[in-house]
């Protein structure tokens, strides 16, 4: 029975060679795929060596990371979060209060941008509008990255009354003047 088993050392060697060839083919395919993903490869210079391909891919990935960081900074700046010049030990930053107020037909539309903790400003503007004879019809609020965006729609209180041009403009100016003092002072909100 022991005579039936035939030991063939070349079979083990052949299996190892096949495994190694498959590994090399897989690595070659992956490197080819990596090479195709990296832009600005000059095929006119001939074949690029493997170390050069890897270096090009590494440099390209580093460049992409830098671009991502620059774009994040730009996004924060555009959203008003880039002003971190007044950071305190409690991780706070300066937040600017912005307002747009204008007449839309017979309604007054106010667009207010504040920090997410500026509920007092919103309440004070609503109170100011009510004191000037308007009725709040609708308020919408959205919060994005510690910024609150408010849209207030108001009309004159009472049936059949509308905001006439001069009175509506006067209310718009009062709202803008009220908010302007927040721009002059430094206010901080938590960024946590």
Features:
4 helices, rod-shaped, 6 strands, 192 residues, 22% strand, two-stranded antiparallel sheet, alpha+beta, Alpha-Beta Plaits, single chain, disordered C terminus, 2 domains, 4-stranded antiparallel sheet
Backbone structural class: alpha+beta
Q: Would you identify the CATH architecture of the largest domain? A: 2-Layer Sandwich
CATH class of the largest domain: Alpha Beta
Total domain count = 2
As a percent range, the share of helical residues equals: 40-55%
Number of helical segments with 4 or more residues: 4
What is the alpha-carbon Rg in Å?
33 Å
Overall mean pLDDT stands at 75
- The end-to-end span amounts to 78 Å
Low-confidence stretches: 82-94, 184-192
Tell me the β content.
15-25%
Under CATH, the homologous superfamily of the largest domain reads: ACT domain
Number of strands: 6
Q: Tell me about the biggest sheet? A: 4 strands, antiparallel
Give the overall silhouette: rod-shaped
Physical arrangement of strands within the biggest beta sheet = 2-3-5-4
How do the helices and strands follow one another from N- to C-terminus? HHEEEHEEHE
CATH topology of the largest domain: Alpha-Beta Plaits
Coiled coil: 54-81
Domain BHLH: 11-64
Pfam family, one: HLH
Keywords: Coiled coil, Nucleus, Transcription, Transcription regulation
């Amino acid at each position: 029975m022991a005579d039936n088993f035939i030991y063939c050392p070349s079979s083990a060697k052949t299996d190892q060679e096949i495994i190694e060839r498959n590994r090399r083919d897989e690595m070659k395919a992956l490197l080819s795929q990596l090479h195709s993903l990296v832009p600005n490869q000059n095929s006119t210079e001939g074949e690029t060596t493997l170390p050069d391909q890897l270096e090009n891919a590494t440099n390209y990935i580093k460049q992409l990371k830098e671009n991502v960081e620059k774009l994040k900074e730009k996004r924060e700046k555009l959203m008003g979060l880039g002003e971190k010049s007044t950071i305190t030990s409690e991780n706070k930053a300066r937040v600017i209060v912005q307002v747009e107020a204008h007449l839309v037909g017979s309604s007054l539309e106010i667009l207010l941008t504040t920090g997410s903790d500026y509920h007092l400003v919103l309440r004070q503007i609503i109170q100011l509008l009510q004191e000037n004879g308007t009725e709040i019809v609708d308020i919408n609020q959205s919060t994005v990255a510690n910024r609150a965006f408010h849209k207030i729609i108001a009309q004159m209180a009472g049936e059949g009354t509308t905001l006439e041009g001069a009175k509506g403009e006067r209310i718009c100016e009062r709202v803008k003047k009220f908010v302007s003092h927040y721009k002059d002072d430094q206010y901080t909100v938590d960024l946590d």
